Amino acid sequence: MTRIKFFIDNKTLSMQICMFFLKYLANFNVFFLFVFNFNNCLIIIMKYYCLLGFFFTINLIRLYAHPVHISVTSVEIINENKKIKVLIKAFKEDIELALFHNYEYKVDNFNENLDTNLLNKYLTNNLYIKSKKVKEYTLNGVEFDADNYYIMYTIILKQMPDKLIFVNHLFNDINFDQKNLMIIKCRNYEKGFELDNFNTTFELNFKEINW
User: Fold this and answer.
1) Residue 187: which region, alpha, beta or left (left: phi > 0; alpha: psi -120 to 50)?
2) Pairing between strand 148-157 and 134-144?
3) In what order do the strands lie in the sheet with 70-78?
4) Which residues contact 121 (CB under 8 A, 6 or more apart)?
5) Helices marked H in 68-155 — which ranges?
6) pLDDT band at residue 90, thresholds of 50, 70 and 90?
7) Between residues 93 and 50, which one has the greater pLDDT?
8) In the chain, at which end, N or C, are there fewer CB atoms within 10 A of the end residue's CB?
9) Is the pLDDT of residue 175 over 80?
10) Contact predicate 122/99, CB 8 Å
């Protein structure tokens, strides 16, 4: 029994001695690298902090970004006036990020400096009617609450065509999973469309509508 215990104690002691020398050797190598290979150590340290900053940025974006990327657009077609009323509801983060991404324009925290000309430019470039019958786009107003923008504008037509092709790729350039819902209203006719990055257009045939 005594011999077994002595053997076990010696084995434990030997392992502790080995661990001590390995730890000493590791510290010596670090010191050697630091003294004799300072540039490589500096590069390793810089890579470490860059990687740390990258993960910090990713987590910060995840903390503040909303998880669902969706916009809702209501379109009312008025045949008598050759007018189309558009109401867009979109997340504030999406609007502000889109303006910064496309025009390097930053909206402050109170939305007091919102450039409506840039906003109108972004909207008409990304939500429009593909037709030569369009006369003009007019931004009528912008409202907002804590989370959303409510944007109203009007499309004037030269004359009512037989069909209209709507194009909507709002925020597709900043959100890969963007969903754009559109609700079309025209008298007793009402229909919804769901668009995304791969499906950005739909056609409305007025022959199917009972005016």
Assistant:
1) left
2) antiparallel
3) 134-144, 148-157, 83-91, 70-78, 179-186, 189-195
4) 103
5) 92-103, 116-126
6) very high
7) 93
8) N
9) yes
10) yes
| Tokens read off for 9 | 């104690």
Phi, psi of 29 (to 5 degrees): -65, -40
Torsion over CA of 38, 40, 46 and 50, rounded to 10 degrees?
Answer: -170
Side-by-side strand order, sheet with 163-168: 127-129, 163-168, 201-205
- Count Cβ atoms within 10 A of the Cβ of residue 194 and give its class: 0-12 exposed, 13-18 middle, 19 or more buried: exposed
- Between strands 127-129 and 163-168, the pairing is antiparallel
The C-alpha atoms of residue 33 and residue 39 are separated, in whole angstroms, by: 9
Higher pLDDT, 30 or 203: 203
pLDDT band of 81, cuts 50, 70, 90: confident
Mean pLDDT computed over every residue of the chain: 77
Residue at 14: amino acid letter: S
E strand map for the chain:
70-78, 83-91, 127-129, 134-144, 148-157, 163-168, 179-186, 189-195, 201-205
Grade residue 67 by pLDDT with cuts at 50, 70 and 90.
confident
pLDDT tens for 109-161 read 656 678 999 999 999 999 999 988 899 999 999 998 889 999 999 999 998 88
Report the C-alpha gap between 156 and 134 in whole angstroms. 6
